[in-house]
Specification:
331 residues, alpha/beta, seven-stranded mixed beta sheet, five-stranded mixed beta sheet, 14 helices, 37% helix, globular
Length: 331
Amino acid sequence: MGAGGTDEAKTTYREAMREALRDAMRSDDRVFLMGEDVGRYGGCFGVSLGLLEEFGPERVRDTPLSESAFVGAGIGAALSGMRPVVEIMTVNFSLLALDQILNNAATLLHMSGGQLPVPLVIRMTTGAGRQLGAQHSHSLEGWYAHIPGIRVLAPATLEDARHMLAPALADPDPVLIFEHGSLYSVSGELLPSTAPVDLDHAAIRRPGTDISLITYGGSLPKAVAAADELAAEGVSAEVIDLRTLRPLDGAAIAASAARTHRAVVIDEAWRTGSLAAEVSARIAEESFYDLDAPVERVCSAEVPIPYARRLEEAALPQVADIVAAAHRAVD
């Protein structure tokens, strides 16, 4: 039993995602999963382990190594009334399906005058920190957040991993879910809940009064750790988890800047043209007179993500970088 007598279950991010898929497939016969190695292998990152045995090969479909083909098949299934969940192994490989995502999934509802909704969910692993080399480690979710006609999600907590899928499947537009690879093994207590996650609003993961740390996905644990270090130094940092990257919750960003008067935006993508740049621009446009210091950005080095562990760590935003940026704004 948890605090106050509430039952809690020990789980991991990976298991929370799997339970979300299992629940969706049990609840709606139209939901099926397709992608590379999602069946017999159990998913490249183990998310779909055991689903083939429970639901069979008609609803857990291993596909050929052709992202364009199976994402296109998912679009066709969605147009035909199904509720497909398409898994792409890594965000880098999603570029092979970018034509399908941008030119078909994101545009058909608009181009058909509202006659052709595409209720498709695409899941993919993103991010670095696992020594997988440059072709498996980049953070490109900001690219997709640039595209009108889709919703872009970045679950960073066990609760979001467990409960974002249901409202995503209910959305008439295509939804892209980015799962940071460093989060799959994160474990903790998950409160039982049947309420779907609010996909329209960012979340305050830690309240604060001196500075806002604004981030998403795999950088959230680093931002929380940085807030802990800053608290020990007498700096109260508010941590904002964007959660939904398109559409951004501009009101939450502006409200946080108004409360703290300083902001650091943490984004594992490259600095140039990044989601961090968009968030910083919005703060400048909407909250300029609330600021007591320039907006700081902490992003990855502008290089292909290195394979060597120490070089990879040096290229990525780290807790010390976030703390240093906060001090530049506060001191």
